[in-house]
Amino acid sequence: MNDKLKIIGIGSPNGDDRLGWTVIERLSKRLGEREDVEVVALDRPGVGLIDYLAGETECWLVDAVKSERKAPGCYLQPGLDQLLQAGSATAGSHGVGLAEALNLAGTLGLLPQRLELHGITIGAANIAGQDLSLAVNAGVNRLVERFLERLEKNVVHTATFNGGVGSLGSSSGSSE
Amino acid sequence: MGNKRRIRIDVPALTRVEGEGSLTLKIDQGRIEQLQLSIFEPPRYFEKFLEGRAWHEVPDIVARICGICPVAYQMSAVQALEMAFDITPSDWVQRIRRLFYCGEWIQSHALHIHLLALPDYLGFDSVIGMAAKHPEEARRGLALQALGNELIRLFGGRSVHPVGARVGGFHHAPDAGTMERLHEKLQQLKPEAQALTDWCSSLPMPEVIDNFISVAMTNATEYPFHTGRLASSEGLDISAQQWEHYFREEQAPHSTALWSFLHNSPYLVGPLARLNLNTEHLPASITSRLKNKGVNFPSQNMFHSMLARAIEIEIAIEEALAISGNYHLPDSPYIEVTPREGVGYGMTEAPRGLLWHRYETDAKGLIHSARIVPPTSQNQARIEQDLQHSLQAYGLDHSEEELRLHCEKVIRNYDPCISCATHFLQLKLERR
After folding, report:
1. Backbone angles phi, psi at B368, to 5 degrees
2. Could you give the number of structural domains in chain B?
3. Which domain holds residue B121?
4. How many Å lie between the alpha carbon of A103 and the closest alpha carbon of chain B?
5. Would you tell me which of A76, A78, B23, B131 could form a disulfide with A107, CB atoms 3.0–4.6 Å apart?
6. Distance, CA of B209 to CA of A87 (rounded, Å)
7. Does B44 have pLDDT greater than 60?
8. Containing H/E element for B64?
9. From the record, what ranges are coiled-coil (chain B) (predicted)?
10. Distance, in angstroms, between A129 CA and closest chain B CA?
């Protein structure tokens, strides 16, 4: 069992969907040599995510959440029910989303003892290119500050995700 | 159920395959009136993207064609460009390319067996349901896939769209200690791969014998990954340069992927074809265990494809153990490249079968033209041929749901990667 906190940012190179990577990049610069926190950026890992979760004590997962109702850049902490409602969109191994991977990990008892999901909403406007939209960029900065504040206070655990199902979409992002 | 019905089955989106495709099946008076496998993913134009790009950009661009088999695209590309520039990579590079490729076979085959194919044979809709009943097997599959990914990361920097390969070799050589740790992990998982083969060989499979042509690379001294000649079960024996003289691609109206024929006939590429043409390189330990289970290769039963993948995981682990056990750090992991005007051909065995590349370069090494023939497009005509035969053997009077499942099982035997082929399944069944 690894006692470090592992923060995983999931993303793709596609516009705002890269926000998970950006969170990790900015956190990494701010955390310095802190040894009790490990940060990892992953490109649409599919079931490969399980390998990064198994054996961990605590993980925070950051991913984009596609939303038609909320403006881009809003913070969400999707729960099990939301993931369930998002439905399974698995069409192939390319389409194994975060929810399926977490569900499989949960079924196999491979989830960390504590797991949090942190989402930032994205829209349909910025789905290509290498830059975040202004709203999502601001949302990323707010989440980074929130993480740093918790880490500074050593308030690591606020919510527990016990595994579940749902789809986070064909890209790395979730639907909400 | 009488055979007078007219039935039309539409599978509008094939599941547990890579990419977007569909199947239309019309049955009239107990006969198949129409059977059409459609690939409707839009063309991806990678060959055109490559035109005008520099030679050194090619490995990273072609790696983007597929998230599951990027190593294959890189290996065929570097081979072709090395031929165009008349350079021969070192023996170290050739062995490490084989090791790199082992990683891709292990992860791709483990993923296909456990996530895509096994649920069919165990009666589950998905790996989630299967994992609840067969947790140890599912964990084993994930562990094997992770091993393959780790191997790819070692040389590629990352397991998805790796960036470590270059024309002439690799950008980076891992140190001996890292390789020792990998070697130990390979040893730990070797029994798991053996158990997987034994489990797959025990599963009841449909007995459908079909007269298909196998096409795969062969090699006098070893199981083929990235070196050798191209052979068929009908006596073909050619080099990569000769591919265009024997194989023909054509556009089918219902597919965005080109269809491929050998002497005007559909043919099979992939693990079963490879095994059929390379049985002499099967380790004796595997052959004897298969014999005890009553399974023999060569096999003309496409339902032996999943077992062939399990066997190839074992082969890849054996190969990786041998190479990693004799690893040494080279003076340089690559040789310098001087581009020139030329034409080069590359062929290697992707997890799903033969992957052929051709590049024409100018004096500066810019890509003048590119041609990429992926395995799934080569298998398309064969899949339709197989469905015709397999459905007749299965019986057309089964229910729509049974026919649909059977069609999907047949198609998944090929582990089609439609995204690569785009060059895949909704089933449309119409029975009259």
Report:
1. -85, -45
2. 1
3. 55-207+325-379+403-410
4. 7
5. B131
6. 39
7. yes
8. none
9. none
10. 16
Closest chain A C-alpha to B286 CA, distance in angstroms: 28
Residue-number span of the structural domain to which A15 is assigned: 2-175
% chain A with pLDDT above 90: 49
Q: Is position B22 within any domain?
A: no
Tell me the C-alpha to C-alpha distance, in Å, between residue B101 and each of A148, B108, B157, B177.
41, 11, 14, 21
Alpha helices in B85-134 (DSSP H): 91-111, 118-122, 127-133
Residue B38: inside a domain: no
Q: Is residue B293 part of a domain?
A: no
Of B67, B116, B142, the CB nearest to A50: B142
Residues 6+ apart with CB under 8 A from B227: B94, B217, B219
In this prediction, residue A170 carries a pLDDT of: 32
User: How confident is the model at residue A159, as a pLDDT?
Assistant: 47
Q: Contacts of residue B132 in chain A, CB cutoff 8 Å?
A: 107
How far separated are the first and last CA of chain B, in Å rounded?
13
Residue A100 sits at the chain B interface (C-beta within 8 Å)? yes
CATH number at residue B360: 1.10.645.10
B66 assigned ligand-binding residue: yes
- Could you tell me if A48 lies within 8 Å of chain B, comparing CB atoms? yes
CATH code, domain carrying A39: 3.40.50.1450
Mutate to test the interface with A, among B142, B151, B189 (most CBs of A within 10 A): B142
Confidence check: pLDDT of B12 > 80: no
**Would residue B306 count as lying in a domain?**
no
**B9 has binding-site annotation:** no
Chain A residues touching B145 at Cβ < 8 A: 47-48
pLDDT tens track for B328-367: 999 999 999 999 999 999 999 999 999 999 999 999 999 9
Number of domains comprising chain A: 1
pTM of structure = 0.88
The residues near A32 (Cβ < 8 Å, ≥ 6 apart) are none
Question: From the first residue on, what is the mean pLDDT of each consecutive set of 10 residues in chain A (176 residues)?
Answer: 88 91 96 90 88 93 88 86 52 63 90 92 86 96 96 65 35 49
